[in-house]
Here is the input.
Amino acid sequence: MMLRTLVFLLAFGGVLRAQDAYKSPYTVKFSFPEEELIGDLLKGPRSDWKDHATVPFREWGNPANQKRWGYWGPSIKHLGPPAGLARKSPQWSRERVIATAMRYIGYSYQHHHVPDWEPPADWPRDPEQKTPVGKGVDCSNFTGFAYNLALGILPSTGIRQQSEMTEAEGPGPGRRVPVKRVELPKRYEDFPNDLQTGDLLFVKSTKGNVSHVVLWVGQIGESPDGLPLILDSTGTGAKDSNGVTIPDGVHLRPFKRSVWYFTQASHVLRIIPEDAR
Here is the structure.
């Protein structure tokens, strides 16, 4: 039986801010119905953003936590696996990670663990922050948060630790899942065939150290010029297929031959293997 196709547009989620005037040319076509893929994220306990941290929401703005948290805010609460995960296919798991991550499109780039953390006005400020303080998340906290909310798998959220993982916590607390390192394809043209939806692609700085991570969207991504797509949280600067600058924060972005996602690519980590069940 052929599964109903569902297309999620960029308006899928995100925070209403000035940057949301941006209209992306990119979409993602999923092979599972919305209710089957992320129904529990739309209603029920998993949908409550106030329950995504290790401390109760009432404690998020407690001045006593300023020194301990700084601008990073509360840590990510490790969730259990979604109902029926053991019976789901690897492709369902991969698409669920992307669908979950897309709910945060429009959130800005912030050094936060939890995307919905919004520091009170009198809290410490990140000296490197170039955009207004608000809800948001950085690259490796974004990938860790997405996997946790989607599958109950919580990778290390520090960029260096995440890039060196050989296993990750989950699904759910007290369990661990192996993480496979995938060497980069030799040619740009081979990336779409060699990488899988949901893979973590790590990118190096000009100094040679791993400094960024993105989610590979893969075959379910749709671009007007046929370019592969990635999903990440980063600063502004990348241009879309229409030549328009993509705002900072969480967005679908093109994987072009000329940009650092490819030219500075380091390696790939695969959390969902081909034979996962």
Remarks:
- Residues 1-18 have pLDDT under 50 and may be disordered.
- The helical segments are 34-42, 66-69, 90-102, 139-151, 159-163, 191-194, 260-263.
